[in-house]
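Retro notes
What went well: the complex prediction finally ran end to end.
Inputs used:
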Amino acid sequence: MKDSKKTKPGKPGTATAPAFQLRLYVAGKTEKSLTALNNLKRICETHMAGQYRIELIDLLLTPQLAAGDQILAVPTLVRRLPEPIKKIIGDLSNEERVLVGLDVQPLRD
Amino acid sequence: MRRKASSATDDHPSIPKAPTGIKGLDDITGGGLPAGRPTLLSGTAGAGKTLFGTEFLVRGALEFNEPGVFMMFEENADELTANVRSLGFDLKKLSAQKKILLDHVRIERSEIEETGEYDLEGLFIRLGHAIDSIGAKRVVLDTIEALFAGLPDHAILRAELRRLFRWLKDRGVTALITGEKVDASITRFGLEEYVADCVITLDHRVDGQISTRRLRVVKYRGSSHGTNEYPFLIGESGISVLPITSLKLEHRVSRERLSTGIPALDEMLGGQGIFRGSSMLVSGSPGTGKSSIGASFVDAACQRGEKALLFAYEESADQIIRNMGSIGMDLEKWIKKGLLQIHSSRPTLQGLEQHLVMMHDTVTAFQPSVVAVDPISNLTLDRDETAVKPTLMRLIDFLKEQKITAVFTSLTHGTTSVSASEDSEVGVSSLMDVWLLLRNHEHNGERNRTLYVLKARGMSHSNQVREFILADSGIDLVDVYLGANGVLTGTSRVTQEAREQATLQMDRQDYERKMRRFAATREAIELQISLLKSQAEAELAEMDFAVAQESAREDAAKSNFDTLSKRRGGNKAGNGRNNEKA
């Protein structure tokens, strides 16, 4: 997280682009940011393992990126792919709503 | 100029202000918006909030060297650029020069899912970045209330807005936040709770089918400000507010006199016309020649080589030129020379206030020395007079301050009775320095015009009623005759003139005859006198002769006596006879 931009948790190795390209915008290392990132990682691993890529963008370091994705609130998770673009704001603490927002069918065992 | 005026308003240093550059607003606020603080601009839909914000930034960038960020939540940059281009604001160019930064914040409720805690740090960062990238001193948020529609959690939003305004203050930018006015509250979502330094409302009211835009400074912490509602206009070059309600009457006056263009009228006004910078009201019933007096005044100004402005609310410019041509005035040549401008519009085009704003702007742009308004009574259409007076007062004060001489014509309603025509003018006449009253006289099967000076402040003026004549060669005034049936004009006057001429002639003849008779009598008497004189002289001569004869005879008698006495030796009796004769 410290080296910001392109942290790729999950499974890197796949040659083809992952189906879910996600961007998480945060502003500094706040509690909310950390909570959001941890929540996101957990949800992704649980429900779409191997099919996602997460970009973490710290707006304190790259403020010019805020305008591009129309970011107002932080943390904001942007689903850039598949289209259409979806945004989920908040610390992603409600897993169910995150999945609804990402349009992902929850995997229940 | 404006800023200087503001700093001179009071001796105590007021809070620092950021001039808006919007015509008139800086006068009301005593210099502009509070510098480095947020100001709330609230208004109904279509009241001109976005335009106000844009002008604030554009003027700031161009005139005061303060770059600005326009963060818009409703329109996008291209739309805004297109919308304000017609007002001469080239946002594209200003953006390229990094004087203005346009940032469109788009919030789609449908795209956003909300889960867990968040804040609006993203917005802060984005705004902060925009401010830093061009070194902005000004920020407009138009309108941040859109966030309420986009973000479901209003509790978070409100807390964040409070933080935002605090943050803007800390950054020291002069911010303008717009909000939509609904019914009683200043903004729909109560932004006034957070932005409390300065609140300005814009209003767009329709009264008698005529819309008027008004601006009011509701509150201005730490500064005095005008509290009235001021009409404003979105004109060809942006917003202009009409602030003039001079509480002080301290304009310097001129002693120079200006001709009205009618020599006989100048004669009535102490022989020199009216003072420069004064205002003249010409009132009268229809067809009494009000417009002609107005036009002649304008014509006279142009002849002196001064600039004149004519606002016409009844006739088009062409029509005026044609009509005035019929009484020997060629206004067209002045227009070609650039000395005269005629602005014609229907009074119903806009409200009175906006007309005045328009006049204000035109006068400021053209800088004439003479202004004619023909007629003001049309502007007051369907308006109650109490509302009209203050607005006209603003115009008159403004013109006086600029040392512009003004002529207003006013239509009085039909009636010919003096008191009625005076009553209907009470609203504005007290503001005027000179008041001419034109009246129609119907008598002896014809209608004639008369004119008199009802008042003329500070100059001797004629108390006479004059007949007012519009001829091919121009306007003239002639003396009227007072007959048994009142004032005689037109053919009655001519008849009366002839009659008096005849009487005069007869009198003269009579006199001459008398004088002749006197002379003849005198001559006869003198003749008699000389006759008597010569008679008297003859008598005198006769008497002398008699006396001489007598003494001769006495001498002779005496010598006879002596001779006899010598011969007789004395005789008493002879003595006695002698004594008897003597």
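What we learned: The domain at 2-241 of chain B is CATH 3.40.50.300 (Rossmann fold).
What to try next: split runs per interface for comparison.
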